[in-house]
Amino acid sequence: MAYSRKLPYLATAALSGLLFGAGLYVSQMVNPLKVLRFLDFGAIPTGGWDPSLAFVIAPAIAVMFIAVRFGRRRGAPLFDASFHEPRLRHIDRPLVIGAALFGVGWGMSGICPGPAISLLAFMPSNLWLFLVALFVGSWVGNLLVRPRAEAAPVAAPAE
Amino acid sequence: MMDAFTPLPALIGGVLIGLASAVLWLGNGRIAGISGIFGHLLPPAATSALWRAVFLAALVFGTFAAAWLIPGLGIGGPGGAPASLVSAPAWTAIPTPAWLAAAGLLIGIGTRIGNGCTSGHGVCGLARLSVRSLVAVAVFFGVAIVTVAVTGVV
Prior knowledge:
The structure holds two protein chains of two kinds. In chain A, 62% of the residues lie in helices and 0% in strands. Chain A is mainly α. Chain A folds into two domains: 1-85, no CATH class; 87-154. Chain A is globular, with a radius of gyration of 19 Å. Chain B is mostly helical. Chain B has one domain (7-151). Helices cover 64% and strands 0% of the residues of chain B. Chain B has helices at residues 7-28, 34-39, 49-69, 96-113, 118-127, 131-151. In chain B, helix 5 (118-127) packs antiparallel against helix 6 (131-151). Chains A and B meet through helix 1, helix 2, helix 3, helix 4 and helix 5 of A and helix 1, helix 2, helix 3, helix 4 and helix 5 of B.
């Protein structure tokens, strides 16, 4: 894994992070209220709904879709031996339960992990508290997921 | 509401996020999923921490630099929302810090168990035509929409 310590690899990570952070600011998705105004479907009849989030995620998916096609044709990334494709393929309970828990937290706060971290650029009050909770939650999540990931190749129950 | 719908900044910002994901994928073969990049900095899942730390630092700096170059577009500027997090809905009688801490915990646990968030499943996963990501996106958008409706947080 010497790849990940080389300069081009780290520069790529830095460039990606810069673009991502700029995108979150320009799209205003770094603003929790803006995100919540998208999630507030109850405001559709009254005209107070903000569809902006859909206009952010659609072009992002489109650009990435082209990149994925291009990558498949090329066969490997520039600075590593192969693409790190997610190994999990099937729909399982942790996927659905995890997405549901995330959905509750996202709906409560209007903050998903990207904006949570990029909000450090603005230091709104209570952000530290939120980030500590996110940190602890991620750590607990890691502990819950780890045994399952290691047991996965052995056990293949059809429950 | 004058500042409600902002299609042009949304599209431009979305292209930037797409480019960010494309750069990390084609350069390093990595999914630009923030919860994964963040989560793998923490034990016991910690792997190759250096590039993750570099990415996250650049994420914050990218936001900061864009706000400096284009002030007033989003947070803090004229016409922009103030740089604040939500308050707990009054009817819940829950103090705002406890509300936000609960949200942070749920997001942390949920994204680790479910293996991704808005960026990893939402942008990268859907672009890869992953069925897992499609299910995750449907669930977390659906649950978040219901949560907003039930709690009345906006």
